[in-house]
Amino acid sequence: xxxxxxxxxxxxxxxxxxxxxxxxxxxxxxxxxxxxxxxxxxxxxxxxxxxxxxxxxxxxxxxxxxxxxxxxxxxxxxxxxxxxxxxxxxxxxxxxxxxxxxxxxxxxxxxxxxxxxxxxxxxxxxxxx
Length: 129
Description:
By secondary structure, the protein is mainly beta. Helices cover 0% and strands 50% of the residues. It is globular.
């Protein structure tokens, strides 16, 4: 069992930066692939970024490449999403998710929200133009 708690969301202007954090409690954090998803009003929850258990491999959706960076600190049981050059279209509730490595093996699987077992409650990010 893993409990995930996100923080760091807020209201910012276009072009600003924010860093989201997700603290994990419970099972061995380093056993899990960690990911960020987001859901805008009226839209489906979509993949944003993911990071392997070791931090050696990262994955991003095309729309955030070069602007967002996912990282993790296994000693602190925390995963981060550094967001820069924010755009109004980045406005959404951002969710942290966790899955065992074997459950999301491969580039396609790691982007599939249905394969993630544990989810946080979400944190709102609003970017004004």
